[in-house]
Each structure stands twice: as C-alpha cells, then as structure tokens.
Design goal:
alpha/beta; five-stranded mixed sheet; three-stranded antiparallel sheet
Length: 249
C-alpha cells in the first residue's frame, strides 16, 4: 500500500509539473494581462477550493496582486458582491447567479467548473421531494443559492415553492443546519462540509444528492463569474484568470 501511495504521489507531482509548464507556455503566447491585480471573493466552502489552488497559476498568468475579498454582508447573496464591483472574478454557484442574470445585473458567467455541492436532508416525515408540501425548509437567505436551487427542484415536481412550503432563515449562513438539527425545520439543503457533519450526528436522511441524482447532476453547480465592466475592460486578464481557475479545478 505504501508503494502504491508513493507511486500515486510521484505521478501526481509529474502531472502538476507538466501542466504548470504547459500552462506557462500558453500564458506566454497571450499578451500580458491589462491589470496585474485581481480580486476574488473569499468563500468559506470547500466547493471553492479550485480558486485557492489556482493562486500559483494566477501568478504564472501575470497577476502580482491577488486579493480575497471578504463578504461584507452575509445576509445578501454573495454574488451581489461581484455585481457591485467589490470583486472582479470569482467562483460562485449558478443558482445564486440566476436572479442577478434575470435582473440584468452587471454579472457575466464565464465558465463552468464542477457539478454537485448540494445534498438535501429531510427528517423522518420526508421521504421524497413531494413530501416537502406543507413542510418548513431552512435556508441561509431568501433569494440565495439554496432557496433558488430548491425552489427549482420543488417546481420540477409540480409544486409551487411560493405557496406549498414554508421558508425560514437564521441570522448567519450556517443557521440553516442548526435550525434543522434543532427540529425547527423539516429539511435543509446542505453543502460541504455540512453533509459530513450531519452524517456524523446521525440526523435526518439524504433526499437528493446533486452530484448523483438526475437531472441535477447534469448541471454545473459552481461556475466562474465576473463583473461585466471588469471583463469588458480586461479581456486578456479575464482569459488568464479563467485558465488559472480551471487548471486549479
């Protein structure tokens, strides 16, 4: 087993070095970025790991000042920070971006990164999506990621998410899980590491896993989004940033 692990690490290191050298060659083929500063959102979720892994790739792409912007208002969907120009480019989940795109906010979706992320947990009274009718669902913020995605799922099976379920929120992002654990909600949509925590507590059951269950597993969850003005003014920098994050993924 030790030999297998060493062999795996050696192969992984070779792959990383090879992709880095290849990326450098492509990077030099493009003009330099219009700006050497880039601001990404600081996301406290493992789903956003690619953009942290990408920090060295961003430096290879010509960025010298890489900033991670804290979310200033946890009750406002984070994607609004991109629309407001507080961040230039960042990974974010597509469900939270849909209302902004619908309202023609200055945000553009640039590339898909990965699927999955969310798992729907329910209590003993919930065996399927249709069992959510008349139930209480906890979300971080109305209009945010969980709200939009779960509303889509509920509508997909023929229910009205505005009338057929009751939504509740806490005061902090992680309060949706606490409300479920405290039995004040019948269901909540968890993202890593919440599913692992709930399983360790042996509370509830998985009703839907967006990494495995169709049609939701066929759609990107996390994407790269950019502020429209930044993308317009800095097309080369945008291309380089996208390449770095996808390489990180």
């Amino acid at each position: 087993m030790a030999h297998t692990r060493r062999q795996f690490l050696a192969e992984l290191s070779a792959l990383t070095v090879g992709s880095t050298l290849l990326g450098s060659r492509y990077a030099h083929a493009d003009p330099p970025p219009e700006t050497k500063t880039i601001r990404l959102l600081h996301l406290p979720a493992i789903c956003a790991a690619p953009q942290y892994v990408a920090e060295e790739f961003l430096r290879l792409e010509g960025f010298e000042n890489i900033q991670y912007v804290e979310l200033t208002d946890t009750k406002t969907p984070g994607a609004y920070h991109i629309a407001k120009g507080l961040a230039d480019i960042s990974m974010w989940d597509l469900p939270a971006l849909i209302p902004l795109l619908d309202a023609n906010e200055p945000v553009v979706v640039l590339a898909g990164v990965h699927a999955g992320c969310f798992e729907l947990f329910g209590n003993s009274s919930v065996d399927g999506i249709r069992d959510l009718k008349g139930k209480t669902i906890a979300v971080s913020v109305i209009g945010g990621s969980e709200y939009v995605l779960l509303s889509s799922i509920i509508a997909y099976v023929g229910m009205d998410p505005r009338k057929d379920v009751r939504w509740i929120t806490g005061t902090k992002v992680r309060d949706s899980m606490r409300l479920f654990v405290d039995k004040k909600a019948d269901a909540f949509l968890a993202f890593a590491p919440q599913p692992q925590e709930i399983r360790n507590k042996k509370i509830g059951r998985v009703i839907l896993n967006t990494a495995q269950d169709r049609p939701w597993s066929q759609y990107f969850c996390c994407v790269i989004a950019g502020n429209r003005e930044f993308v317009r003014k800095n097309p080369i920098a945008t291309k380089r940033a996208i390449r770095a994050i996808l390489k990180g993924a």
